[in-house]
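Weekly structure sync - notes
Attendees: PM, LS, DV (DV joined late)
Agenda: review two folding runs queued last week.

Item 1: First target. Sequence and structure tokens pasted below for the record.
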Amino acid sequence: MYAQLRETADELAGVLWREHTVYRERGGGVVIRGEHVRRWISLGPTGGKDRALLRAGRLLDGGTTAPARTEVVVDLTAGTAELAAVCRRLLAEVAAAAEPAPVPAGAPRRQKPARAARAARAGRPRRERHTSLGSFVVLLCVAGVLGAWLYSLFGGGYGY
């Protein structure tokens, strides 16, 4: 089955993209990567004779693959042109899913992240602030130094 998938993938890759990489995946399928279009197509075995699971997805930054967005079972006995048409349709669906949807004119705008974070915090009970032990020690030290300085200035014990 792998040989048939590999042969079909090589033909499809040549029809779909000029620049491509074809390699075997762990599950026994074949992957076609189009780095320049940031998309991938996978042909995997389905358990049936002359049938394959065709999946399509996009490539993320760094070259990793995102999970498949669309998949369909295809007949491998169909011609390369028919399989390429199915692949193009799947790739178009992947591209459409990757683009952000346009916002209708009358739709409310999204909240800014800071406002959304404040709104999320508003539901939580507010924690009272307590001065820690370390802060008290620092305050006592500052008060002691200030007291020693004032004592040396005004009450230095010069007993005249």
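Item 2: Second target, run right after the first with the same settings.
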Amino acid sequence: MRKKTKRIIPLSITLATAVFFTGISAQVAASEQVTRIPDQMKAGTIIEFDEDNKMRIIVEGEPVPKKRPIMRKVLSPEQQKLLEEEEKMVQKIREEAKDLPVYHLENPAPQPGMRVIYDGEGLIREIIYPKNISPNAYKPLPRGTRKPPGTYTYGKSNNSITIKGTTSGSVLGEGRFTNYSDTVGENDNTLKKGDCATKGEIDNPSYGTKIASRNLENDVFAYVYKRDNGALPDAVLDIWKTGVELYGLTWSSSLSFKGRYYYEFNENDDK
């Protein structure tokens, strides 16, 4: 049977943390008027756009350190069983969502006075908006809600979040997992190991939602709990600090890895 062609629908969204550095020259970009925020820069770079949207380097970054490969270990029978169950659910969601529309999300356009801060991986850590355009800043969906059904793609890491259903259904996120070290979550809760944040402008499930997840680089499965949300422009899930140990990893502030997550929801989740 021929697969149906999905509709690709452009969609703009505010993003505020970002992607891998592949060698874009900040100096060259700064000499010209630009129409989009660079999603790749040297680690620690800070840029600002002037009144003509020309990029100015505030802080010159350093080359991004080479990423170390994640080591694989023999999985326990329990881990193997969890992976098999996860694989079945992922394939089920993909099959049921195959005819849904696809929306591609872009970085916000530069604005005079906008400042962009890049982190230790050369990714956008924060976008600071001028006061007169602050309404464009990050705005999560109401808690317990998601975007309409469809697949939402964004970022250089080929991130995608597939939403199936409205009052009940499932969500599948595939792409990059990052980590963060905030102390307080979305419910004035003290964040702890096992907590995570979702991309709130696309997928903002109920506080405490149990999320099944997998480190695709070593196949370690873990359950984490949604107790925060964030912009995540080049990530599908943000793991709180030492929670990366659940995936067989050792924490560092710049750690990221390829992963996927899913959960099911229904209309009674947020009641």
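Discussion on item 2: DSSP finds two helices and 16 strands in the chain.
Action: LS to circulate a short write-up before next sync.
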